[in-house]
Amino acid sequence: MAKKRVPAIDGWFAMDTAEPRLLGTKCSSCGTYFFPKESSFCRNPGCSSTDLEEVPLSPRGVLWSFTNNCYPPPKPYVTPDPFVPYIVAAVELEREKMIVLGQVAGDVKIGDLAAGMEMELCLDTLFEDDAAEHIIWKWRPAKGAQ
Ligand SMILES: [Zn+2]
Description:
Elements: E1 4-7, E2 13-14, E3 21-27, E4 33-34, E5 52-56, E6 60-69, E7 86-93, E8 99-104, E9 118-128, E10 132-141
Parallel strand pairs: 1-10, 8-10
Antiparallel strand pairs: 2-3, 3-4, 3-5, 6-7, 6-9, 7-8, 9-10
Bound molecules: zinc ion (ZN).
């Protein structure tokens, strides 16, 4: 029996494997995007709006920086046991021009990455327990991009 797939963090992304999207908010007054979602008021110092709508963010962006993490991060981060080193990428979203951090999909090697390349969002397992697969967003080199 296949395990249940649940989001590792509720409400931060759409659980849609075919078209994964991060969920942010956009200020309807000044157009500033926020991720994670800002729900009380716009953080743009020049704007006093409290009208924020939930929007799906660009699933693509440009690789701004990356590094590999060979040590488990401190709690509250959840990592598989035994710890498996992973790559962290900072990607500048195509439309929003904001940087979103995420792990890189496990099959991608650090030598496959170069700053400036196009990346796309995917959903992958963060960790598994007896009850479920806990799913998180990850970045991978975009298909059809060089
Ligand atoms: Zn605003």
